[in-house]
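Inputs:
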Amino acid sequence: MRRSVVSLTIVMVIVAILLGNLYYLQVKQFENYATRSNDNRIRVVPIAPPRGLVYDRNGVLLAENIPNFTLEIIPENTDNLEQLLSDLAELLELTPNDIERFQTQRKQIRRFNPVPLKSQLNEQQVALFSVNQHRFPGASIDASLSRYYPYGAALTHVLGYVARINTRDVARLEEQGIRANYAATRNIGKLGIERYYEDILHGQAGYQEVEVNNRGRVLRTMKVVPPIPGKDLHLNIDINLQLKAKQLLDGRRGSAVVLDPVDSGVLAMVSSPSYDPNLFVNGISSKDYSALLESPHRPLINRATQGVYPPASTIKPQLAVMGLELGLVTPQERIWDPGWFQIPNTERRFRDWKRWGHGWVDVYKAIEQSVDTYYYKLAYEAGINNIHQYMSEFGFGEYSGIDIHEESKANMPSREWKRQRHKEPWWQGDTISVGIGQGYWTSTPLQLTQATNILVNRGKRTQPKLLRAVDDGEHFEKMPPPDQEPIELNNPVNWDVALKGMWGVTNKQNGTSWKAFDGTPYVVAGKSGTAQVFSLGEDEEYDADSLDERLRDNAMFVAYAPYDDPKLVTTVVLENAGGGSSNSAPVIRELFDYYFLGEDAGQSAGASEE
Amino acid sequence: MNYKQQQQSLWWRFHIDWPLLLGLLALMGLSLVVLYSASGESMAMVQRQLIRFGVAFFAMLVLAQIPPDVYQRWAPLAYGVGLALLVAVLVMGEVGKGAQRWLNLGFVTFQPSEIMKLAVPLMVARYISAQPLPPRFKYVAIGVMIAMAPALLIAKQPDLGTCLLVACSGIFALFLAGMSWKLVGLAAALVSGFVPILWFFLMRDYQRQRVLTLLNPESDPLGAGYHIIQSKIAIGSGGFGGKGWLHGTQSQLDFLPERHTDFIFAVLAEEFGFIGVAAMFCLYLYVTGRGMFIAAQAQTAFGRLLAGCITLTFFVYVFVNVGMVSGLLPVVGVPLPLISYGGTSIVTLMAGFGILMSVHTHKRLYAQ
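Outputs:
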């Protein structure tokens, strides 16, 4: 009897302990366990935003998103993986390579997550699988969007491309604190517009909260926050002009840049040779990649912005503006050109390209006939400090501000630069070669175009831009290029002198390039340049035939048209092609004809080529 | 005879203790409600449980009709047969889930250890009640041996849960018989001495792992600790008022292991909260209390010991099950009595209550 009471008391004590513990779990620790319970069942699945599209100035699609069908398998949900793989391989004609890659990837992917077996299935394969899907539990087709560049190699150096996010990208995204926004994103802009405007193109990731069971299977969606798509970009590029330029440069090494002088928009920018950017989107094979890397023609370089060439005679109009402005020359003043220039009290003669000289030369003739001697003297009298100051204002040695990251500043030499770079003082002789755009002076085709553009705009400076407008679906926002401080001349007439000189180059019978533009119904002004890659001795003759191709001159030409109301400013550089007038000028002629006269007009009458 | 006495006599004639029956039926009702949710709303499972309850109820009815002195007389036979069957299991039993518990008799397979859950209290109660009370050391020692022999055989299968229950039922009989506190202390010492033997010689690796996991379940959240963590999350996230019937996420989404059998308590705690848990304990306390009342009212020492023993063993089920599901005790396979889905334990339990009712309702016969 007494023991019964004792037992019952012990029972009560035990119940009190159990209930106390349960009270602790359910009331005191409720928040903690409620959270853990939700963590268990609720999984947040990020949704990648569709990437913004890219259009040219006329609304032609340049970069789009196309569906990419990938066959995926969740190994944990299959009954017999080996059997499944061999059945699928038979049905869809998979290669042992596909299977091998699948097995490798499988080890790197968390349990209950899909492992890709084959991407870029064609429609027939998708249909075949869909009909037979019931036979393959655990396998499914994932339809994701994949970037596609319909114009392929024609725009590679403008658009760039997107490719798989790598560890360096991840580190950068983390640094910027936007890693989470890329949770579902596979590719990121690696080059060109795709890289420069990554933030605009990418958009805002969405997510859905799904309820899962203990096997990770999604049972229902509890909440969906849709992604905000990336904004569309409209470029200044005119795809037809771009394709024409590309076609003209096919098979050659070189580049062409066309700017709209009104707003400095980039109408065309071609670097040749190029490559297909679509190769990179789904992962380029190492064979293809090393072929690109090792090609002697260096297709990966964007020659328009990274190609560094001596500007040669193409910058003579700008130097003339400087000389006039400094009062070193006047439009009327003439000098005698014996065919060479000598620094007073020295022996060395700097030779003109015309061995016997041009005779009496004024500033117009100096531009028209590209008289070296005139510029040797001008450079000598101006000195490197003035040249550096004025030419920097024309953009040489500076970033143009174009909206891609692949750009070189090239080099506008100065005393300081030489001291730092070569640990040597600046010699007077250095200035003389700079006077004809050689020596230490280098520039990119884009810089040359922009320098001409500034000239054409009489000192007004606007940064060249590829981007024209951003469209988020509701607002079409124009992106006017930032203006920079203009070049103010004491005597604005000096602009006209230089421009008239350029008119003479292509329109006067004794201009260096009149043949190339003979008979055009529109009026062209321009300037040729033939850049020495290989320096000749004082009395040596240049003989193109005997030189290795790589040592031949670069053919340069800058031009704009129409003369009175410029619509296009352009530069064409052809590497190791020879003279600018005979090689690059005809390319510009065809481009201008195409633009002003239309596709069918062909070359306007009377044109000639050497 | 007034009306009430008439009613009482009607129950009495069928040897049923209606207050106890009421408690048992309430627990069975609770079982069906929770099971419907825990089984993923499977009506078929609920029906099978209902059939089992029916069979168990019938067993209780039958056993309640048999007078206690018959039990007293036949106890040694039941005990002897049970012991023989246990040996048989070890020699030729069927293996399932890494343990050898089942005996195939050709037409039915069953666990002889279930017989022992009743045979041991019967035998110990009979033996001790035949001695002068309170029992001297010698009788206590023999009583312990009677209980421990089958317990060790069961531990060898291994079936730790049943071993524990069988051993307890023997010990409880001795305790209720009034064995001296000195001996209780000694028994406690023996038990603690038994622990290392259990650990090193009788337990299998997976059982040791369970004990280790209990001490620190978070150390192995995907392996052995998974059950305990998930069941604690289920209980804790139920909170004070619960998530509502059929709305327990831990149980409905399969995070909870063994949720309709050994871990059904976690389902109840998740869906009905602390309120539901407290209500369940009230039911168990009521049944336990009524059982102890019956024991106290018993006219013979045998009846008293037997009734107390069965009642306390019933409570040990509750304690061990709730203890393991809420993370206080290692995971040993003990069901939540009358609520967990599962065959033999329900029948055995109800058979025990039948004996309890027999003890209670047959005493008037002696009095007359």
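Remarks. Chain B has a mean pLDDT of 85. The beta strands of chain B are 94-96, 99-104, 109-110.
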